[in-house]
Amino acid sequence: MEAMKKKPVLITVDGRQIEAPEETNLLSHLLDAGLDIPNLCYHEAVRPYGACRLCLVEVNQKGWKPEWRKISTSCNFPVLEGLTVYTDSDKVLRHRRLVAELLLARCPRSAEVREMAERLGVERTRLREQDEDCILCGLCARVCAEIVGAHAITFNARGGRKGLSTPFAEPSRECIACGACVFVCPVSCIKLVQDESTRTIDRWGVSLEMAVSKRTGLPFAPRKQLDGFALRAGLPPDFYDVAPGEIERR
Amino acid sequence: MQLPIRTRDRLLAAVEEARKRKAPPEHVIYLCAGTGCRASGAMDLAGAMKAEIEGKGLGKRVLVKLTGCHGFCEKGPLVVHHPSGVFYQTLKPGDVKDILETTIDRGDVVERLLYRRPGTGEIVRLEKDIPFYANQKRIVFDLNGRIDPFDIDDYLAHGGYVALAKALATEPGKLLEEVKKANLRGRGGGGFPAGRKWEECRSAPAPEGIRYVICNADEGDPGAFMDRSVIEGNPHRVIEGMVIGAWTIGATDGYVYIRHEYPLAVETLAKAIEEARRYGLLGSDILGSSLSFDIKINRGGGAFVCGESTALMASIEGEVGEPRAKHIHTAVQGLYNRPTNLNNVETWANVPLIVERGAGWFTSIGTKGSSGTKIFSLVGKVANTGLVEVPMGISLRSLIYDVGGGILGGKEFKAVQTGGPSGGALPSSLLDLPVDFDSLTRAGSMMGSGGAIVMDEATCMVDVARYFTKFLEDESCGKCVTCREGLRQMGWILDDVCAGKGTRGQLELLGDLGEVVKEASLCALGGTAANPLLSTIKYFGEEYEEHIGEKVCRALVCKELIRYEILEDRCTACGICRKDCPTQAIAGAKKTVHVLDQAKCIKCGVCYDSCKYGSVSVASGSYRRVSEQIKFKLRPVKASA
C-alpha cells in the first residue's frame, strides 16, 4: 500500500537496472529480483532491524565519487534514485563469511545457522564456540509487538550479556501462546508443545488451556488468544465456538 | 531588578547592576568545589574557611567563593587568592588559619602550600605562572574558577547573556553564516561542522513547526570529565549557547541529556535553568523577542552507547537506547521524527563566544581545519592530571610535557590514547602530531570528546587493547552481530595473547575481526570499536609479536608471562614481604634470605611493592625491573646453605 504512493526510481544492482519505489526497503527488491542475499533477521511482515548483518551490500549514492563505496545492510537501506548496489563484491562476500563465522561460533549446534554458513562457503568457524541457541535477531519480539500486539517478549541487558526473554524473565502474563514467534524464528529455537488440553511455550514460561471446537471436539487455539482477539475485534461471544476454518466450510 | 527581563537594554542594565553588586571585596578566595576537589575534601575546607573568617570577624573583607572545577584536580583541594593570584594546593582544613593569618592579615604567602615544579622543587607563587595553567588557552573554561555556578548574577556580572541579546537582535540567517564561518566543529566526537548541521536542521521541513535542540552531556568515556566540569562550573554558558542555537535553527524545545551519575552537574544545571526562566532567558518571548524556547533535563542511565545520537534520542523517547540507521540525518528526522540538532556540551559553550567576539576571532585560534580550543581530560601516568583547554593544533608533546608536566615518576612515555575507549593509542614517534580533528583521525585515533590517557613504559599495549575492547563489548548495545560477537571474540583472543596462549593465526584473525567490526556495524560505536586493537597492532605490533612468539610481556604486566623473584644477594631478611604475601608463598626467617615459592605465587606484586631495599625483581624474558630502593641501609644476609 505504502509502496504504491512512492515514486518509482531506477537503481543499478550488480550492473543491472531495477525499478523500485523510492525510500522502500532495498533488500525486498533485491530478493524480488531473484538475487540470493543471505538474511536471518529480516521478515517482510515487520520493521527491519539490522541485527544479523548478513544482507550486507556495498552502495554508492548519487553525487558520490564513482569509486566511493559504503558497506551497509540492505534490509534497512532505502531505495534512492541513482543508487548503485554491489551485492557480490569481494569485500561483501568476505564480510558475510566472517559474520557467518561469528554466528556459527555463537550457535554451533543450530542446523539453520550451519546451513546458512555453508551456503556462504563457511564449513567451520575459527572462533571460540559457545552454546547458544538464539542469534538475538529479535524477530520474535518484533512480531509479538507489531503483529500480535501482545508485547510479551523483549530484549534485555546489552553487549555480550544481551538476551531475549519475557520482562524480568518471569512467566509471561502477556503471552497468548499464539505461536507467531515460533513461526518467524529463523533458527527454530522457540519450541511449542501442544497436547489435547494445553499449549506450552517453555521459553516464555506459558502453558495455556486450549479451546475445543463445539463441532469437532478438537482443540484449535489457546482460549486466552481467542478471548483477546474477540475482545479486540468486538466479535460475538459464540464466534469461536468452532474453529475459523470450520466456519468457512460451513 | 525587575524580572523577567524583557528588553535588550534592560538586560544590559541588569549586567551593569550585577557588576556593581558582585564587585569583589578586598579579598576573594576562589575555592574549587568541583566534583574532583569535593572528593578530596573541598567542602570540609570550605566549611573551615568560612567558620574561621566568621570567627575572626573578616566577613566584610574576605569572600570565599565556591566555584566549579579549576582543572588542576591532581592538586586539589585548591584555592586561588584575589587580588594577588596566589595559588595554594592540596589543602586541609588545618591550613586555613595559616592562610588567613599570612595571606589576608600580612599579605605574605604560606610557602609550604605553594606549587613546586616537579624535579627542581622550585616554588611557583602565582596561578598564572604554574606551567599547567600558563600553557593553556582558556576561552570556554575562562570563568570556571571565578564564578559561582549557582548564581546567575555572577554570570551576568561577567557579561553573561549579552551574546544572547546580540543574537536575538540579529537575523538567524546571519548568525548561521557566522557559525559556519567560525568553522565550529562538534566537540563530542565526530567533529562534524556545527554550522552545516544547524543549516540542515533549520531548512528541514517541520510540519507542526516543532524542531528540537539537544545538548549531549552523556559523557561516558572512562577518565573523561570535561562536559561535567563545564556544566558544574558554568551552566549558563551552555544554556545561552542552546538558546542562541534555538533562535538560529528555529527550535521550540530543548533537552539536555545528562548522566544520572553526575548529581552535582544535574543539580547545578537544574538551578541554572530555573534561574534563567525567572530572568526571562528561557520561556516565552525571550528578552521580548519572538523566540519561545525552554529546556528540559533528561537523565540517562549511564549507557555509553546513549552518547550516540540516535540511541540518545531513542532513550529520550523512552525506548531502549539502541542506535538506528541514519540514512536520513537526525537533523531532518530525529527526536520524535522531527528535525533535531544535537551538539555536545563543549560545542554549545563555544557558541556565545563566537556570537560575542565573531568568527574572525574564533578562527584566529587553532588550525585552519580545526578552529578554537579543545578541552582535554589529561589522565593516566602524567604528572599534572586534570582538565586542560588548549588551542587546536598544539602538539601531543606540548600537551603532555608542557601542560601535563611530563610522565609521572620520571618514567618513559609509551603511548597516549586519545578519543576515549574508541580512540587509538599513539606512540612516541607521533608526539609531534598536531592535535586536531583530521590529524588524529589520519593517525588511526580520533579527537573524540577529548579524553587523553597517558601511558608509560610500564603499560602493556596488548593489555590496554584488551581493556578497551572489553569495555566496548560491555557497552555495545548488542544489536549487531559484528559488534556484539566480534568484540567478544576479540576480547577472548586478547585474553589468550595476554596469557601467552596466542597464536600467529589468531593475530591474523584479530585483524579480520577488527575490519568487519569497523565496517559492518551499524553505528559509530561499532565503527570505531576496533580502533584500540587496530592502532595498537599498527604502532605496537612488536609487543603482540613478543607475547605470541616469545611469551614475553615487556611491560611486565601480563601475569602469566612474568615471574617475581627475591634477589638473594640483596635480601636483608626484613620479613616484610613474607608478612605481606597473601598466599604465604615466601619462606624465610630472621637473618635468613627469603625465597619465593613460584608454585604458590599468584603474581599480585605485593612483595615487589612492599620491599624497601630494592630486593625483589619482576622479569619476563630478558626484560627485568627491580623494586625501588627506598631505604639505603643495605645489609644483605648470606643465603642459607
N-end to C-end Cα span of chain B: 90 Å
Shape of chain A: globular
The total strand number of chain A stands at 11
Structural class of chain A: alpha+beta
Q: What is the C-level CATH assignment of the largest domain in chain B?
A: Alpha Beta
CATH T-level fold name of the largest domain in chain A:
Ubiquitin-like (UB roll)
User: Nearest-angstrom radius of gyration of chain A?
Assistant: 22 Å
For the biggest sheet of chain A, the summary is: 5 strands, mixed
Q: Helix count of chain A, per DSSP?
A: 8
Count structural domains of chain A: 2
Largest sheet of chain B: 5 strands, mixed
CATH topology of the largest domain in chain B: Rossmann fold
The protein's oligomeric status is heterodimer
> What order do the helices and strands of chain A follow?
HEEHEEEHHHEEHEEEEHH
Structural class of chain B comes to alpha/beta
Based on the structure given, which CATH architecture of the largest domain in chain A is correct?
Roll
In CATH's first tier, which class of the largest domain in chain A applies? Alpha Beta
Named at the architecture level, the CATH assignment of the largest domain in chain B is 3-Layer(aba) Sandwich
Question: Strand fraction band of chain A?
Answer: 15-25%
What would you say this structure looks like, in words?
The complex is a heterodimer of chains A (250) and B (641). Chain A is of the alpha+beta class. Chain A folds into 2 domains: 118 residues, Ubiquitin-like (UB roll) (Roll), CATH 3.10.20.740; 111 residues, no CATH class. Chain A is built from 8 helices and 11 strands. In chain A, strands 2-1-5-3-4 form a 5-stranded mixed β-sheet, with helices on both faces. A 4-stranded antiparallel β-sheet of chain A has the order 8-9-10-11. In chain A, strands 6-7 form a two-stranded antiparallel sheet. In chain A, α3 packs antiparallel against α4. The longest helix of chain A is centred in the middle third of the chain and has 17 residues. The model of chain B has no long low-confidence stretch (mean pLDDT 94). A 5-stranded mixed β-sheet of chain B has the order 12-11-15-13-14. In chain B, strands 2-1-3-4 form a 4-stranded mixed β-sheet, covered by helices on one side. In chain B, 55% of the residues are buried. Chain B has 25 helices and 20 strands. At the A-B interface, β4 and α3 of A face α18, α19 and α20 of B.
